[in-house]
Structure formats: structure tokens, C-alpha cells
Design a protein that fits this description.
Its EC number is 1.1.1.284. The protein has 42 residues and is mainly β. Helices cover 0% and strands 38% of the residues.
């Protein structure tokens, strides 16, 4: 079975007291017993 991924944007702090950087990451699709939550804001 091959794992499937989607692209997502994430706010990441690479260390303590470092500013957040918004980066595109790969996220595995949900497996059995998991859910995918999409948050939309304006």
C-alpha cells in the first residue's frame, strides 16, 4: 500500500523565540480512525 500525501501550509517555528515562517509541507491523508480538518478563515 502506498501512502498518499497532500500539500498544506503550516506555520513553523524552527527554535525557541524564533519567528513563525509559513511553509508548504506534505501531510499524509488520514487513515482509518483519523479525520482531516480544514480550517478556513478570512
Amino acid at each position: 500500500m502506498t501512502d498518499k500525501f497532500i500539500k498544506s501550509k503550516a506555520a513553523i517555528a524552527w527554535g525557541p523565540k524564533q519567528p513563525l515562517s509559513v511553509e508548504e509541507i506534505d501531510v499524509m491523508l488520514p487513515r482509518a480512525g483519523e479525520v482531516l480538518v480544514r480550517i478556513v478563515a478570512t
